[in-house]
Amino acid sequence: MRTESVMNVGPVADVADWIPLAARIGYAAKGVVYTLIGLFAARAAVGIGGGVESSEGVLVTILHQPFGRILLAVMALGLACYAFWRFVQAIKNPEGSGDGDLQEWFQRAYALGSGLLHTSLVLGAVGLVVGSGGPGGSSTESKTAELMSQPFGRWLVGGVGLVVLTIAIRQFYRAYKASFRKKMRLHEMSAKARTWFERTARWALTARGLVFSVIGGLLVMAALKVDPSQAAGFKEAMRTLESAAYGVYLFGFTAFGLLFYGLFQFAKAKYRTIQA
Fold this sequence. Notes:
Order of helices and strands: HHHHHHHHHH
């Protein structure tokens, strides 16, 4: 027993100690991004100005604020912490999601994709800080056209669309089952706070599922029609929701849901159980 306790100290233990801190910083940084996205969208929904912004647009907005480069550098560090945590989840599966089954590998793949996505945001933020450019400037349509020009490109675009639709279904499932509660220390919240947390988290995940449903559906449509112009990113997906039947209500529901998703990330930064 004495030998075992000695073996648990050292560089490996030190790294493990830093992982939960990095994860919490990452969740907080993601919370900032989504809260700003939600605020911009909510302002547009209630008609007091502004418009829909994507994650990349939020980074540019931060840059234009007083001390913008410093704030953006801090954001880049926070998002890098989140990407690191997602890579840890993808490679090591420290929380034991699944048991070597399909669910585990889906969770690993999802974490890997999230890590890569947030790494691209980090690189974009760093580019803005050092003045060498910003987040990817090409549109979803041009990216889809480039992918479609590759061998089997049509099938690749359709496959990406199906993956995005799968992510949307996962968001709806998490909202319906409230599975997010399993990894939250809800006992540390008051009864009233816990009730509001669960309600807004369900709303947030449903709204995110709606956005992913539109993006994935339009990607599949682009593949079927071999028409890259059918593809849509975040901003186009929000406009599609706004132009749908009862679009004003649907857009408003989604806008405030994205705001709540940002608050959901702040709650995870404080209350989520994190196993390194």
